[in-house]
Structures are given as C-alpha cells and as structure tokens.
Design brief:
Layout (H helix, E strand, L loop, with lengths): L1 E4 L4 H13 L4 E4 L10 H6 L7 E5 L2 E4 L1 H9 L9 H30 L7 H22 L12 H10 L13 H11 L20
Parallel strand pairs: 1-2
Antiparallel strand pairs: 1-3, 3-4
C-alpha cells in the first residue's frame, strides 16, 4: 500500500495513527500540496477532488477521504464493530468530525498557524462559534463516556482526536473542558508512540 500524504495534515495523521495500531506496512508518498502537486493530472486521477490523503490499496486502486480510508483499514478489526447499532454509532462520530470538527477547529488552526486570520476575518466569528459548539458537544458526551462510540476505543476517537487535541493551536480553550482532557489522555495511552505532529511547511505560510 501507498499513502499519498502531506505530513502537517491532521487528516493524514488519522490514517498514520490507525496504520500504527494495525502495524500495517505502508509506503509514504509526500505530496507538496502548496506547490500544486495535488492538482496535477496524475494526482487528479487518484482523487478528482485533488486533496490528500489518498490510499493506494493496490496498483491503480485508490481511496480518498480520510474517514473512508479509516473505515477501509479498520474493517474486520476491533476499531470498527460489525454489529449494526455499534457500527452506526462509530459512523455518527465520523460524520460529526467531518461536519463540525475539521471544518471549524481544523480551519481555525490552519488560519492561525499560517497567518491567515486577518484575511478571513469576516468568517472568524462563525467558525469560532462552530468550533465552540463542537467542543461543548464533546465535553457533554465525554463527561458520561470513556470513548466516543460504544465506550470502546475506535476509529471514531482516532478521527475526532486528530484536530480536537490541537484545539489550543486555534486559540480554543481545552482547559475548561476537563472531560475532553481526560479523553485525550486515554486516546494517547492507546499508542506506544503517537505519530508526530508536523509544523506547516514554509510554502503554506501566508505572505502579505
């Protein structure tokens, strides 16, 4: 298998985290997304959206979208239950992550770390409100549950953890949300070593 990835992406981090759990060998193929490498004709054949990560499961067979990749890799493992209700609960949090977490927390973090806050000032209030709503929902749920779905660690936790545990980078307050903090510690404890979190490359930094 090959993973086409941009290391600072937390969408890629999700896949790297699960691959580590599964101890599945996978060739890493770096993609310089801010230099246009994900918009080439060759890459668009792999993913017509032109986004990473993309998993090549066998020559010429590709899966895009990080949470779809998680589902593929986790099939038949402890990280994705087969029982319909338990599986649906995992899916619930995967959809939550893509609707509330990545577009709000992930985007705010990107804007903050790459100097794009001023350029996106008209959108900041709405993004921040969505991010706070997502964190409040997580705090309520995790105040009653050890993990997001079925009280068992799963790809739901992997997906939501990727951006949520870095919410402070987006100037969002995790200290006032102790249930999230405890959950972050539990997720970290599932791995002998978490994948590294990489800084954005210089070509991602906004210039005046």
């Amino acid at each position: 298998m090959k993973l086409y990835d941009y290391l600072p992406s937390q969408n890629g981090f999700k896949v790297r985290l699960l691959l580590g759990h599964l101890q599945v060998p996978c060739e890493q193929v770096p993609v310089a997304i801010f230099q246009g490498e994900s918009r080439t004709a060759a890459f668009l054949e792999k993913n017509p959206v032109g986004a990473i990560p993309v998993l090549e499961v066998e020559p010429g067979a590709y899966i895009a979208e990080s949470n779809a990749i998680l589902c593929y890799l986790a099939e038949g493992t402890q990280y994705l239950p087969s029982e319909p209700l338990a599986r649906a609960r995992v899916m619930q949090w995967l959809f939550f992550e893509q609707y509330y977490v990545e577009p709000a927390i992930g985007t705010l973090r990107f804007w903050t770390l790459t100097g794009r806050l001023q350029a996106n000032e008209p959108l900041l209030a709405g993004k921040r409100a969505s991010a706070e709503r997502a964190l409040d929902a997580l705090e309520r749920h995790l105040g009653q549950h050890a993990f997001l779905a079925n009280d068992r660690y799963s790809i739901a936790d992997i997906a939501v953890f990727a951006y949520s545990h870095l919410a402070a980078d987006a100037e969002l307050d995790l200290r006032s949300r102790p249930a999230i903090g405890r959950w972050i510690d539990r997720v970290k404890a599932q791995s002998v070593q978490l994948p590294a979190v990489y800084a954005y490359t210089p070509d991602a930094i906004a210039t005046a």
